[in-house]
Amino acid sequence: MTRNEIQDVRMRRYFIDAAKELIKGEGVVVVSTRNVAERSGYSYATIYNYFKDVRDLIFACIEDFQLECKEYIVEQTNGIKNSRKKLISITNSYIKFFCMYPGIFELFFLEKPKLISTRKSSIESIYTFFDDIIDVSF
User: Fold this and answer.
1) 54-77 vs 33-40: helix crossing angle, rounded to 10
2) 116 vs 123: CA distance, rounded Å
3) Which of 6, 19, 79, 107 has its Cβ near the most Cβ atoms within 10 Å?
4) Does position 42 have pLDDT exceeding 90, yes or no?
5) CA within 13 Å, CB half, 78
6) Please, what sign has the CA dihedral across residues 18, 127, 9, 47?
7) Nearest one of 3, 7, 20 to 50, comparing CA atoms
């Protein structure tokens, strides 16, 4: 990876982390380019060098939240061999994750798809997320 590519990845991460903090704390309604820029310590115009718009940034957060949720579920269900118990544990862990973070729950299950999806992103990944977790876990 070149120095510029590393810098691009780092800058994207700053904005994604700032947006994720906002979503976890206050919900998706407060995610704007100005709020994310203020939280990350950069100009709001800089965000547009890395994301097409705020919806593109939000969808990057969704992908990160999905990874966090999968990691949490793996951690909570590690070592369970009985298929029935594992399925119950996966489901309970899935529910606990979203109960711990109401802002993420709101984003995944209550937000209108047209407000968070872009041409590049697929809202389908949210709809099939639990199925993907089950497929990976067994």
Assistant:
1) 60
2) 8
3) 19
4) yes
5) 6
6) negative
7) 7
Whether the Cβ atoms of residue 16 and residue 57 lie closer than 8 Å to each other: yes
pLDDT digits (tens, 9 = 90+) for 63-81: 999 999 999 999 999 999 9
pLDDT at 40 over 70: yes
Per DSSP, 30 falls in state G
Fold observed for domain 3-137 = Tetracycline Repressor; domain 2 (1.10.357)
The answer to whether the beta carbons of residues 32 and 76 sit under 8 Å apart is no
How does DSSP classify residue 92? H
Those residues whose C-beta lies under 8 Å from the C-beta of residue 79, and which sit 6 or more positions away, are none
Q: What is the pLDDT of residue 123?
A: 79
The per-residue pLDDT of the chain, averaged, comes to: 92
The answer to whether 118 touches 53, Cβ cutoff 8 Å, is yes
Exposed, middle or buried by CB within 10 Å (0-12, 13-18, 19+), for 76? middle
Domain residue extents for the chain: 3-137
